[in-house]
Design goal:
The protein is built from 19 helices and 23 strands. A hairpin with a 6-residue loop joins β22 and β23. It is globular. 51% of the residues are buried. Bound molecules: glutamine.
């Protein structure tokens, strides 16, 4: 059993500095040195989880194998590390308070005044230490969401201070800040960094490592200046320049020796000559940077203005593109902008079409038009979750001639609810009684189907996040008309994958394959989709 070490990553000056990517990159480097590492995100908002947040507010909601609805940073962790995360890897202020209030009602604190310190901070500390409890991990990296100085993150920062004091050599704090360049003065400015470190120090935390985000290279003197003003060893002040892909950050951090600094701080011995093995990673980057082909894929969704809303799909496409040595140019099309008059024109340059997941009826009919265009023009098509449901509805309306076919989510009075709430779906649910969340088994039932050819196996596990399902009452009629179910959950008989065998490559999946694509294991469906686009 190992004594787990805790690494905290805080951020200062501004948000969006990429704490998640730095955390994931450090984890990658430590993993490449054969350590077991996990990453956890603490989010300072009051929602119990981001499941109820609009993607415009918080980007994509990432779903883990155990069905937790989590922050999108967990997606980065899995894509970098190729290791599953779980509910324990994402904690919000809301969940902390919820637990404390429940304990209070149960009488756990009888006689005591329940307060932020110690009760809330104790609950935070309990969650941080939970992952290290069974000695499975050598390192637990905890990323504190938000920016130091925010009112919301104070209890988290205080919990870090206490842990650092209690566990001494078992804890290290990395602080990420920004060094802006003032074009008018022609200078890089360190003052915002000094101030943000002061805020941390006022909270009783001395950072051990500073990672300076910068658009321009930093010289040694600037780093020495920052080190002197912030009580940090000069060699522990490193820079993180802008790079064109997040997947280069582990290599940059390796050059900056972030992993070596961490090992030195924990007094873990290593040979200077021992560099982490990142062969597969470099191989991926090499393919990503030297594509042999360029293809255009139209992505039809209703949150396309905000790229973070579809983070995992975008990354899956990058993984699959690299695997096919193909640069995939994504053309984002707002489903609300597609109508009967313009859809052919707007989609005509697409060599492949993806229809996105989603909830509610905004932009729904535009998605139906995109499916129709892909189906009628033999263009490779991948429909994900709502995208698969759109594929079934479009097929029912235009091929099975059920003109009024719909999802009962969009029209509860439809005569032909080809997508509906199914009885056994309720049995499976674990969120407010209606949502199917997390990984479920799926059997690929048809040999030589696109799914079978892509996965090269018949038993798979994929993650779900939806309420509605294909209505099996319409299944045989649908199959006779030429759209077949190729993936089934055997326990419930729910349809998980549909295909049109006559079409070049037309696949709809009720699950979200994008949650399981990683750099080292690009998802087979995305890989097969891009291959089909490529072969056009
Ligand atoms: N709104 C649909 C459902 O709940 C699809 C959800 C999704 O695309 N994630 O079934």
């Amino acid at each position: 059993m190992t004594l787990t070490k805790y690494i905290f990553v805080t951020g200062g000056v501004t948000s969006s500095l990429g704490k998640g990517i730095i955390s994931a990159s450090l984890a990658k480097l430590l993993q490449a040195r054969n350590f077991n590492v996990t990453i956890q995100k603490l989010d300072p908002y009051i929602n119990i989880d981001p499941g109820t947040l609009n993607p415009y507010e918080h980007g994509e909601c990432y779903v883990t194998e155990d069905g937790a609805e989590t922050d999108l940073d967990l997606g980065h962790y899995e894509r970098f590390l190729n290791v599953y995360t779980s509910q324990a890897n994402n904690i919000t202020t809301g969940r902390i308070y919820y637990n404390v209030i429940q304990k209070e009602r149960k009488g756990d604190y009888l006689g005591k005044t329940v307060q932020i310190i110690p009760h809330i901070t104790d609950e935070i500390k309990r969650h941080i230490k939970l992952l290290g409890k069974d000695g499975k991990y050598d390192f637990v990296i905890t990323e504190i969401g938000g920016t130091v100085g925010d009112i919301e993150s104070l209890p988290f920062i205080e919990a870090v201070r206490q842990l650092k004091w209690e566990m001494k050599n078992q804890c290290v704090v990395i602080h990420l800040t920004l060094v802006p360049y003032l074009a008018a003065a022609g200078e890089l400015k360190t003052k915002p960094t000094q101030h943000s470190v002061k805020i941390l120090q006022e909270a009783g935390i001395q950072p051990d490592v500073l990672v300076l985000r910068t658009e321009h290279p930093l010289d040694k003197n600037l780093k020495i200046k920052v080190a002197n003003f912030c009580n940090v060893q000069p060699e522990y002040v490193i820079e993180s320049p802008d790079v064109d892909t997040i997947y280069k950050v582990p290599l940059v951090m390796q050059e900056e020796k972030l992993d070596e600094i961490i090992l030195k701080l924990f007094k873990i011995k290593f040979k200077e000559s021992d560099k982490p093995e990142l062969k597969a990673w470099r191989n991926f980057l090499d393919k990503y940077e030297h594509p042999k082909k360029i293809v255009k894929v139209a992505f039809v969704g209703k949150y396309v203005e905000l790229k973070d809303a579809y983070k995992s799909i975008n990354e899956s496409i990058i993984h699959a593109g690299a695997e096919n040595e193909t640069k995939v140019q994504m053309e984002y099309i707002h489903s609300e902008n597609l109508n009967n008059k313009n859809y052919k024109d707007l989609l005509k340059s697409a060599q492949g079409i993806i229809v996105a997941p989603g909830f509610g009826d905004r932009g729904f009919e535009g998605k139906i038009l995109a499916v129709r265009y892909a189906r009628e023009n033999n263009i490779p098509f991948l429909g994900i979750c709502l995208g698969m449901q759109c594929a079934v509805i479009e097929f029912a309306r235009n091929v099975m001639n059920l003109k009024d076919a719909n999802s009962s989510e969009m029209n509860p009075k439809t005569k032909y609810p080809v997508i509906d709430i199914m009885e056994n779906q309720k049995f499976l649910s674990n969120f407010g009684g209606t949502m199917r969340l997390g990984a479920f088994a799926c059997s690929i039932t048809k040999k030589n189907s696109h799914a079978n050819n892509a996965y090269k196996t018949t038993e798979i596990f994929e993650r779900h996040r939806h309420r509605y399902e294909l209505n099996n009452e319409f299944l045989s009629q649908m199959e006779k008309a030429g759209m077949v179910a190729t993936g089934i959950n055997q326990e419930t008989k729910l349809v998980e994958i549909v295909e049109i065998p006559k079409h070049k490559w037309f696949v709809g999946v009720q699950f979200h394959p994008e949650y399981k694509s990683t750099v080292i294991n690009p998802h087979p469906l995305f890989v097969a989709f891009i291959k089909a686009v490529n072969d056009l």
